[in-house]
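User: My collaborator sent over this chain with a note saying "see what the structure looks like." That's all I know about it. Can you take a look?
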Amino acid sequence: MLSHRFILIVFASLLAGTLFGAVRASKPNIVFFFIDDLGRTDLGYMGSKYYESPHVDKLAKDGMVFMNAYANAPNCAPSRACLMSGKYSPRHGVYTVGNSDRGSSKHRKLIPVKNATELADEFVTIAEALKPSGYVTATMGKWHLGDDPTTQGFDVNVAGKSWGSPSGGGYHSPYKYPNLENKEKGEYLTDRLGVEACKFIETNKDKPFFLYLTHYAVHTPIQAKPNLNKKYQAKKSTERHNNAAYAAMIESMDDSVGTVLTTLDRLELADDTLVIFFSDNGGHGGVTSNAPLRGSKGMLYEGGIREPMIVKWPGVTKSGSICRENVIGIDLYPTLLEATGSPVPKGYELDGVSIAPLLRNAAAKLPRKAIHWHFPAYLQGYTARHGHFRTTPAAATRMGDWKLIEFFEDGALELYNTVEDLSETKNLAKKNPKKAEELHAAMLAWRKTVNAPVPTELNPEYASNTEASAPKKPKLNKKKDRKKKP
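Assistant: Without extra context I'll predict from the sequence alone. Here is the result:
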């Protein structure tokens, strides 16, 4: 007969496993939907009344929604390099897309820091870190970090290369991508990537897999399926969201997500799969509105870096839960290692922290002081409101509810309480100099830790540099002309 002590031990073990998500697959499958240029408010569950995203909305209902989730950078390549490497930009040198000296030289006061356009092989990607644990890995869609992701841990690559946007005919076939060709007219790229993702899942259903479905959508060119374009042309738009073709692209992206999730259900894999939905940077300001967030893609204001993010991990996340802790893209690398029981690669330093405690308890707190951005480059403007640049070289730090931006051209500091002032309309640097100094000290300390380069060399072609001097140190009480800032 079993002793009472033994029964109590077994019961306690089962209870603990249930509470902490241990009674589940020891190596969960991972499906990571990474969407390009999707703004924080571009989805139904985030409040859009024009764009339609029922499948993503259901994922939000079934999983955990993160309200303070941030991309690592305000544009594509650096955000992806940080995500894949688990390191902040100064560690790998990918700060922007292409050249760092974009825009007219006569308007650039400084010589920006040179930019790397590929993630060097020395960095261990998430895929490389998961493979020793038995994972088969696939990337489908945009890679943007070099010519061939199969040299950096991925067993399967479909349509991924150094391109930052769809090549050839754009989203409509005929097109030619690595391992993805279609010479017939009419196929839609977003649809095809979803089909290829389902094929991968079907083929690898009996082993743990990591699927990185990194859509080119909804990046420019804005090209929609004709039937969906007509649907939204006939639909009443809103003041903020009114681009029919863009709305159609969002629906196609959402359909692709739904196709993959349905496949997981059909194969009875959903309960053993960790699903992440995220975006690489803010919405394109010439196409969509990120309001009430200020700014758009290419800016360190909230509209350029705050993203929609959902995590569903059956047995761990609570359906319909909302987390308000500050998280950033580099956190996903250590999170996936913890979720799969995979060790950190030997001698490899990660800059993020695992958000697994948040997945178990949305009210938990992470053990860090702040999160950071470093963007020592120029990005030209593409709308009249941008002026010459969306951003000049700058950095940002968020600590709790507070956020500080430093502009390197003149040392200007902008301080915002992002909870009380979501739209970043009130620069409190002068009114609250102690808080500005606190965040700036944290920024400077971090900058030293990661050896972040700050541009100081004056550009001889700058129109005013005949009278200019080197950038001055920040002066909290000096009035700034904010109209000159993107």
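A starting point for your reply to your collaborator: Confidence is low (pLDDT under 50) at residues 5-24, 477-486.
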